[in-house]
Amino acid sequence: MKDAWRDCEGWRNSKLPMTSSNDDACKWFDASLTQITTMYADDEAGGMGNSFKNMMEADPDFVMGQVFVNSMKFGGSKTETEEVIKTVDSILALAAKQKVTERESKHVTALKLVTEGKLTEAIEVYRNILKDSPTDLLACLLAFFKYYELGMFNEMLDMMASVIDAYTPETPGYSTILGWKAFAHEENSQLPEAEENAYKSLAASPRETFAIHTMAHVHLEKGMHDAGLAFLQSKEKYWASCSLACHIAWHEALFHVEKGQFDLAVKVFDEKVKIIARGNFNDASSLLYRLAFEDVRVPQRWKGVLDLVDKFSGHHTWVYTDLHILFTLYRNGEKERANDLLEGLKEYVTKNTGTNAQVTHDVGMPLCAGITAFEEGHYETATNCLNSVYSKLNRIGGSRAQRDTFVQLLLHSAIKSSNPDHKVLARTLLNQRKSDRVEDPLGDRLLMLLDSKSG
């Protein structure tokens, strides 16, 4: 086991004491945290699963270990099940029995809130932890990705700005924090700051995943597709082995789609976009849907994505995923299953009060209506539905690059609509899109399409 991983004393010295007297458990906690935040498996640790296993075997009553494992397991806005309730109650009882620190107790409280679907309330607890313990990387990690799922990027940037001064190059997680801050800047359209922090992060660790990821975003937002491809290719020796590899490959494919190089985009899909997890499912569905806008027909690849739908359907843990399930069902001709999904979502929003249920009600359902109308050829209705929540798109979560699928859907709907006002809307959106980009071949193609429909 690496000496750099913190034992009980190491965590105390970091001002993050653990209620455990087992040095191995504390070291395995650090090994797990390091791998999850850097997004690279450590061969010596045997990977994430092995690190968690060794941590809990070393100290089965390790409260922060229990919190960590179950935060990963029950990290979505799950409807409470008997398993979830039993697990969280046992952690609460264990924390009370051991009289854990206030910081650890807050982590348990946040976990309970997450499993109840109260995501914004959970974030507030994480932020409270960070006020007193700004280098609590687990609290920052969990809040960061909740902000991402909820599209709360102003708040994300505020959090990153509030903790960054507590980090020095010697602080564990330093390069990761810089990478996360870079991403928060990018999502707030602060591209120079994003680039500055990304390169600081890469100077500290050349393989820092989120710094590489952020620079893919920066190049896309600037319309610098060739430079973006060159950057990703220069860093591929690092990112190809990280847990975000599929998503970064998705960015690589997007550069090709933007440039009109559809065969190369499909090649990246086939060779690098592995459909093995929720995020990868969303990326795969999103990429194929964007290719469909360009009249690229890939029915067999859509079938491969369809094979994964049952893994995610019915859980309603994140509206962004439900929307991509709907894409996938329609593109596979599964209209009956699409109707079942829509009915399930209607029931979900009437029976649940958590954060995701509210977002699904306010934004997700109009988007579903817009997708359905588009797929059925009712373009005026589709435009009205999609445009009604255009200003609220951030609430479904995901990055601006990811949400651009829905912007493109609105554009295609408006261009195909027979309503003249919708043509004006499309032109306005396209002019906004092109204003900040060095090059925008995708926007140029859409303008040509709009001109052909307007004539």
Structural write-up:
The protein has helices spanning 8-13, 23-38, 47-58, 63-73, 82-98, 102-115, 119-132, 137-150, 153-163, 174-187, 191-204, 209-222, 225-239, 245-259, 262-272, 278-293, 299-306, 309-312, 319-331, 335-351, 355-375, 379-388, 400-416, 420-435, 441-454. The longest helix is centred in the C-terminal third of the chain and has 21 residues, at 355-375. The chain is globular. 73% of the residues lie in helices and 0% in strands. It contains 25 helices and no strands. It folds into 3 domains: 1-150, Serine Threonine Protein Phosphatase 5, Tetratricopeptide repeat; 185-273, Serine Threonine Protein Phosphatase 5, Tetratricopeptide repeat (Alpha Horseshoe), CATH 1.25.40; 275-455, Serine Threonine Protein Phosphatase 5, Tetratricopeptide repeat, CATH 1.25.40. With 455 residues, the protein is mainly alpha-helical. Helix 14 runs parallel beside helix 16 (278-293) and helix 16 packs across helix 19.
Topology of helices and strands:
Elements: H1 8-13, H2 23-38, H3 47-58, H4 63-73, H5 82-98, H6 102-115, H7 119-132, H8 137-150, H9 153-163, H10 174-187, H11 191-204, H12 209-222, H13 225-239, H14 245-259, H15 262-272, H16 278-293, H17 299-306, H18 309-312, H19 319-331, H20 335-351, H21 355-375, H22 379-388, H23 400-416, H24 420-435, H25 441-454
Keywords: Repeat, TPR repeat
InterPro entries: TPR-like_helical_dom_sf, TTC38
Family: Belongs to the TTC38 family.
